[in-house]
């Protein structure tokens, strides 16, 4: 509905209420007002959560006027903007980010001191919204930060999951998942708008009618519906006074319960419909890099994109907007295939609801969507069985069929009746008949992009070659990036201060300026200061791990870190074989413990709850850790720490402390990686394969400042072609043999050989990700790491050069690339 401007006669009613004065006194007053009036408590009787909430409300108050103005302006100007459609946003904590963006950090800190409050204690109150699994969700969060900082008109659309990614605990070294009840104490950052709810329909059937002119129209007669209630989040730009919007949808039943049934005493039945509806936004699917072919997941996908499209058309467009002009007004960016059902939904709205001709609607659709692919694993390409899709969304299935029919006709025109090609390119695959969502996105999208140079190339050459040939110019690359605000400025204040001291402010929004640090790499004094920052970060991490997990971190150790989702292609097993090799060398007496470079290995990784092998690997990491850490023969020189529940909050402490970043996926499997960028920007050196964005990191930092190992993607292909037999590698390398034998012997499972047998036999007889093939090269490169770490000053120099040369990986640059190559949505200052 239209917003109704009240007859504004009072001068104060003409504009949003101005922000309170940005002084300590002003902040204190606003804070106490919020504590008293919003929380309903006195300072003296307030709980930490009350104080955290009041602080968050106060930060909001400072951003509010700008937010309201920006929303009004975005509607007024009707400039072209981005609707970023993503099933995941892995936001991390909001308080510090919003304080920073609003330049309030100091004022707020002093104001809290004035109230006798430790602001750090309040920071700890915030439960991060973990509304994503891993890289894809965190990328979306970085992108909305950059969009706001660069003043690009945009809205992020997604799902407000009541439960985000599960909380991981370990019981006897094994992963146990707990629900992530992040909303229990309420979130101060969200603004629900039940008045702007959209009705979302499902099921039912379609009916065709023909009018007097013989024009056929189809009506969808849905079977049921739910309400989509939007929750708005502020997305403040950094120091530019801009506040964009993230709009997350919650599913709510339209009828809370059936009073008649309730009165008859069947309480469960009375609320059945409500429970069913509200399940849609209940929980994030914890699968990463594998699609879940569950009806509920398709419901989630359709739910949020249908609500988002309707929201955009109803609330963002001016009343007299001519839909023919949509391509000049909006681009819907599809973050992987999860939102791709938006394509037939958009067609349905234009044709069935707005009465547009099919061809005209299709021409518009093909200009209004673009698709980002985040994977190369064939098993990760999402497909929906036709019967499931037809049952849940019968009209959409018809639309998909027609899109496919017309598309295949075009293919025939171009290539003749090449039936094999046609079968390969069809959006519908056979046995079982399913919709290939990546194909649908490719056909509908104005552009298709991969997320790193190598990935985009492989996407064109290996995954979608026929489409690349058919649509010249449609495929492009946008290498991922990360926000320097959260991952340098906030996560590493020591380094940020040092950079500002050296280069002046400004680098936070123009990260290529880090180049200026190259000169400082040659300055011994600067190197000392830089090394001190790294050491201080290790101390901070040490405190966090002691508090959080009771771990002891030796700050003199080389800190070797592998944090990412647990997946076989990422090869946590390769890291583990390195650790076991080192350990075996010492306990067998072949290596003098005192000659070993002291190292602490840190793992952080969640396994999808249904991914048995990944869970076994977690168990094995913990098992190796508990044996190695307690073995006196190691003399404390090897430590394995695996803090549970790795998340954005922990990442912000681990990454700045790391010396070595492990990016060791099998070449051709990791689309990009973004953790790799965060580590390099914080001065960790990378040991990595020629995969994903590692390739670009190495090109930028230089071979001397990067530890490269392993097969290249063509070498991987060649080895498969030749016939890969992992057991041959086992036979050929005595170190590898001893490491695997030690695991197989039960040394890490109290002599029980059966516990890790599946891991061992998987490596020896299957090894889909060629861990054994890359083992010797990895071990050799790790020896170089040890040697290099021996010269601390040289290491620090390389570390500075990593920071200096990786400014390219700012998500601001990614967004600029999206604007130039795909969106054509200039910033509106
Ligand atoms: C890639 N998540 C990284 C990153 O581009 C890349 C899949 C299915 C369901 C839910 N979540 C997923 C992913 O596939 C994912 O996170 N992919 C990652 O995207 C950003 O840097 O290489 O693995």
TrEMBL record:
Q: What is this protein called?
A: Alpha-1,4 glucan phosphorylase
Membership in a protein family: Belongs to the glycogen phosphorylase family.
Q: Mind telling me which SUPFAM superfamilies this protein's record contains?
A: UDP-Glycosyltransferase/glycogen phosphorylase (SSF53756)
Q: Which domain of life is it from?
A: Bacteria
First-level EC class: transferase
Task: Kindly list the cofactors needed.
Answer: pyridoxal 5'-phosphate
The family database entries (InterPro entries) matched by this protein are listed as:
Glycg_phsphrylas, Glyco_trans_35, Pyridoxal_P_attach_site
Q: Is Transferase a UniProt keyword of this protein?
A: yes
Q: Which PROSITE patterns does this chain map to?
A: PHOSPHORYLASE
UniProt keywords (A-Z) are: Carbohydrate metabolism, Glycosyltransferase, Pyridoxal phosphate, Transferase
Q: What are the EC numbers?
A: 2.4.1.1
Presence of keyword ATP-binding: no
Which PANTHER family does this UniProt record tie to the protein?
A: GLYCOGEN PHOSPHORYLASE, GLYCOGEN PHOSPHORYLASE, LIVER FORM
What function does this protein fulfil?
Phosphorylase is an important allosteric enzyme in carbohydrate metabolism. Enzymes from different sources differ in their regulatory mechanisms and in their natural substrates. However, all known phosphorylases share catalytic and structural properties. Allosteric enzyme that catalyzes the rate-limiting step in glycogen catabolism, the phosphorolytic cleavage of glycogen to produce glucose-1-phosphate, and plays a central role in maintaining cellular and organismal glucose homeostasis.
Q: Which Pfam families match?
A: Phosphorylase
Q: What is the reaction catalyzed?
A: [(1->4)-alpha-D-glucosyl](n) + phosphate = [(1->4)-alpha-D-glucosyl](n-1) + alpha-D-glucose 1-phosphate
């Amino acid at each position: 509905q239209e917003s109704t401007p009240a007859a504004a006669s009072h001068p104060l009613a003409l504009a949003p209420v101005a922000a309170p004065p940005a002084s300590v006194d002003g902040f204190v007053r606003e804070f106490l007002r919020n504590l008293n009036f919003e929380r309903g408590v006195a300072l003296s009787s307030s709980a930490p959560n009350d104080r955290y909430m009041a602080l968050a409300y106060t930060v909001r108050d400072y951003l509010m006027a700008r937010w309201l103005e920006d929303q009004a302006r975005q509607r007024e100007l009707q400039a072209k903007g981005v609707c970023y459609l993503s099933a995941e946003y892995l936001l991390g904590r909001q308080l510090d980010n919003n304080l920073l963006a609003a330049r309030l950090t100091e004022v707020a800190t002093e104001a809290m001191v004035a109230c006798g409050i430790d602001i750090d204690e309040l920071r700890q109150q915030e439960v991060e919204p973990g509304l994503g699994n891993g890289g894809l969700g965190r990328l979306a969060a970085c992108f909305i930060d950059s969009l706001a900082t660069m003043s690009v008109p945009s809205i992020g659309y997604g799902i407000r999951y009541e439960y985000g990614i599960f909380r991981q605990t370990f019981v006897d070294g094994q992963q146990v998942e707990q629900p992530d009840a992040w909303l229990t104490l309420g979130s101060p950052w969200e603004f629900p708008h039940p008045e702007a709810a959209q009705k979302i329909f499902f099921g039912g059937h379609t009916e065709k009618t023909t009018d007097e002119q013989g024009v056929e129209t189809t009506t969808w007669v849905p079977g049921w519906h739910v309400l989509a209630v939007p929750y708005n989040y502020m997305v403040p730009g950094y120091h530019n006074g801009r506040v964009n919007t993230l709009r997350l949808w919650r599913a709510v039943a339209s009828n809370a319960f059936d009073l008649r049934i309730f009165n008859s005493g069947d309480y469960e039945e009375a609320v059945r419909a409500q429970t069913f509806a509200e399940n849609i936004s209940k929980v994030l699917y914890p699968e990463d890099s594998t699609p879940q072919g569950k009806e509920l997941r398709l419901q989630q996908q359709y739910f949020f994109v249908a609500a988002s499209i309707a929201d955009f058309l109803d609330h963002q467009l001016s009343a007299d907007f001519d839909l023919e002009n949509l391509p000049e007004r909006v681009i819907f960016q599809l973050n992987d295939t999860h939102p791709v059902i938006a394509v037939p939904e958009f067609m349905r709205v234009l044709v069935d609801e707005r009465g547009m001709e099919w061809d005209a609607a299709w021409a518009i659709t093909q200009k209004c969507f673009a698709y980002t692919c985040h994977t190369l694993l064939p098993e990760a390409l999402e497909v929906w069985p036709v019967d499931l899709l037809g049952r849940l969304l019968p009209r959409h299935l018809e639309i998909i069929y027609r899109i496919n029919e017309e598309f295949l006709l075009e293919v025939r025109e171009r290539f003749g009746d090449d039936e094999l090609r046609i079968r390969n390119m069809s959006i519908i695959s056979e046995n079982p008949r399913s919709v290939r969502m990546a194909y649908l996105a490719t056909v509908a999208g104005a552009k298709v992009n991969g997320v790193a140079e190598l990935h985009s190339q492989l996407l064109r050459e290996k995954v979608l070659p026929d489409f690349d040939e058919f649509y010249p110019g449609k495929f492009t690359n946008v290498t991922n990036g990360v926000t320097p605000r959260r991952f340098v400025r906030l996560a590493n204040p020591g380094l940020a201060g040092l950079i500002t001291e050296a280069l002046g402010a400004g680098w936070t929004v123009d990260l290529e300026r880090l180049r200026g640090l190259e000169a400082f790499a040659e300055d011994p004094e600067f190197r000392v200061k830089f090394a001190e920052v790294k050491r201080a970060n290790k101390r901070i991490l040490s405190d966090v791990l002691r508090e959080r997990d009771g771990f002891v971190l030796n700050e003199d150790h080389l800190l070797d870190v592998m944090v990412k989702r647990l997946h076989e292609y990422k090869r946590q097993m390769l890291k583990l074989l390195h650790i076991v090799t080192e350990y075996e060398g010492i306990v067998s007496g072949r290596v003098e413990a005192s000659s070993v470079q002291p190292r602490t290995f840190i793992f952080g990784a969640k396994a999808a709850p249904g991914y048995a092998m990944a869970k076994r690997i977690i168990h094995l990491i913990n098992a190796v850790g508990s044996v190695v850490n307690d073995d006196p023969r190691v003399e404390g020189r090897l430590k394995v720490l695996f803090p549970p529940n790795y998340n954005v909050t922990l990442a912000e402490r681990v990454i700045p402390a790391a010396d070595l970043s492990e990016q060791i996926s099998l070449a051709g499997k990791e689309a990009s990686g973004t953790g790799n960028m965060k580590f390099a920007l914080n001065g960790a050196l990378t040991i990595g394969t020629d995969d994903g964005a590692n390739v670009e990191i190495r090109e930028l930092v230089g071979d001397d400042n990067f530890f490269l190992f392993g097969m290249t993607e063509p070498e991987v292909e060649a080895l498969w072609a030749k016939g890969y037999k992992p057991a041959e590698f086992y036979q050929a390398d005595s170190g590898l043999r001893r490491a695997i034998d030690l695991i197989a012997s039960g040394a890490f499972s109290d002599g029980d050989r059966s516990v890790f047998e599946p891991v061992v036999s998987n490596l020896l007889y299957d090894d889909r990700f060629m861990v054994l093939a890359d083992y010797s090269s990895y071990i050799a490169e790790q020896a170089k790491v040890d040697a290099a770490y021996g010269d601390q000053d040289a290491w620090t120099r390389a570390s500075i050069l990593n920071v200096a040369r990786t400014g390219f990986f700012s998500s601001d640059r990614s967004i600029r690339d999206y604007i130039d190559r795909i969106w054509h949505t200039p910033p509106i200052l």
